[in-house]
What does this fold into?
Amino acid sequence: MQHRDSEDATGGQLSRRQLVRYAGVGATLAAAGPFVGVEAAHADPDGQDRATAGSGRADNRIWRAGDHHIHSEYSGDFDTSTNPPTFRKGADAVYPIVTNAIMAKNFGLTWAMCTDHGGPTHSKVNLEQAYPDLLRSRRLVPEVLQFWGMEFDAPAMDHHTLMIPRHADEAKQLFELESRFAKRDPFPADPGRDTEAKMVEFLKVARNMPHRPLVIAHHTSRSATGLGVYGQDLPHEFRNGNDAAPDVYVGFEGAPGHQAGPLNGSARGGYGNHPTYGGYDQATARVGGLWDALLGEGRRWWITATSDSHVHWTRGGTDFWPGEYSKTYVLARQEYSDIMDGLRHGRIFVTTGDLVTRLDVTASSQGRSAGSGETVTVSRRERTDVEVEIRFRPPAGTNANGDRPQVRRVDLIVGRVTGPSADRDADTNPTTTVVARFGPRDWRQQGAQYVIRHTLRDVGADSYLRVRGTSTDEAEPLADGLESPWSDLWFYSNPVFVRVR
It folds into this structure.
């Protein structure tokens, strides 16, 4: 299917009357709070918004906020008393695709993706009903790059983002993958679809496509019943998938959606069996946990943060709007291909509550440097110091809750890269530690940013470093209860690798 809606068109701000007319959600918009600007796409007051030249990154890339896990009215249900099943819109999520795009723009996102649930014969619903609505939404809200994809019913696992690259046959590509591999698409049901082998087969097929998609696991530990206990998603499944398609299967949600749950008396993230920690999945929040175990094998495995928006909390749901609370920032140009490249290669940081709007982590040694998702190589001839620079920027104004969040502490976390684990279900990296904690007295202001510098002495083995920060005084993120999510904010970088040769 050919289409010509522009990828890079820009336009003026829509009036509230236009927003209501286009979206058909007047009451929803009124409940959404004040409108905010797209701060991530603007230049820094101190002229430092572009990536540093020493990182090797293109200097026309800037941090762009987005969300790859959003639901529209096409997350519905099916009447299976008919053959084929009859699809009914709006049973699980209620907003039109264009409404999500408008609200994403409103809350500062420049890219987004609706990831609707599958079901029996849903591949035809996506192709024939949802995709034309996406094309209309792209025309109405060109300021937001709107990817095509779905919340994939991964064989033997929980849901995953399946993000399709922007190209003329994107609809056909998703139809092929969903109809062939989504475990819930066959009617009648086919138990042979729901196996680990089928998941690996899917990833191998995706890897060999001319336009390679991205696959990112959702709410990794939502079905877990304890710390270090796993439900639908097991550590060896992440390893097997990443081995099969390392440039397709690239990570999991560090901060899942449904973060507004406590505002309506339910669990943050929808984690009813075992809680999140500071709004983050245990696989990410536990220092030396599953994420660190994967990084310790040298895997390029990234984390993201999403809304999983279905129904806004002011209308009885458990969700924030896209970008209202959680943001995934990608260092990229405002192009579909470069946003995907940034996600694929880990040029990512995540934040909740707009605690920061920029986070640059750079490791430098012997005249070489690298940022998030990259690798700096140092000589083995002698133990070498690695200089770490952390730059972060708080928001220029208030966040969507009307607060001016303050960073109270930044942690530098370092772990060893020791190679593949003999235990495919290993979920710890005992070498990973918080090597330094920084408070306001430890950073200096430079224009609109704050800068921290630290030296890692005598680095003699392969390793990685990553950074997190918080608005709280918790040394480690605590298990979440019914506290307001706005009082418990965290940001995380993705890792920088250090290779010793």
